[in-house]
């Protein structure tokens, strides 16, 4: 997407019109940071935790990711 506003509109449209699940994390820090909104559902918050966990496990090494499966 070209900018933050366009990305936000796309994410909102996917969530509300297509019933898509979303996950919010910030990358670039030493560890993934979970970023959620007050309006997020429990499912979205859990998806954010799952994605952050996968990102952290991937950074530690591929052996840990395979062991978790």
Give a structural overview.
This protein has helices spanning 4-17, 42-60, 62-68; strands at residues 25-26, 33-34. The chain is mainly α. It has a domain at 22-68. The chain has a two-stranded antiparallel ribbon with strand order 1-2. A hairpin with a 6-residue loop joins strand 1 and strand 2. Helix 2 (42-60) crosses helix 3 (62-68). It is globular. The mean pLDDT is 86.
SSE order and pairing:
Layout: H1 4-17, E1 25-26, E2 33-34, H2 42-60, H3 62-68
Antiparallel strand pairs: 1-2
| End-to-end C-alpha gap | 32 Å
Helix content: 55-70%
What strand order characterises the main sheet?
1-2
Total helices: the number is: 3
- Main sheet summary: 2 strands, antiparallel
Label the structural class. mainly alpha
Weakly predicted, low-confidence segments: none
Order of helices and strands: HEEHH
What's the pLDDT, averaged over the residues? 86
The coarse silhouette is globular
Number of strands: 2
Radius of gyration (CA) equals 14 Å
């Amino acid at each position: 997407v070209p900018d933050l506003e366009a990305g936000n509109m796309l994410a909102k449209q996917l969530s509300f019109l297509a019933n898509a699940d979303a996950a919010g994390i910030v990358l670039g820090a030493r560890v993934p940071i979970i970023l959620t909104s007050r309006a997020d559902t429990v499912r979205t918050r859990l998806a954010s935790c799952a994605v952050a966990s996968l990102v952290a496990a991937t950074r530690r090494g591929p052996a840990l990711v395979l062991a978790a499966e």
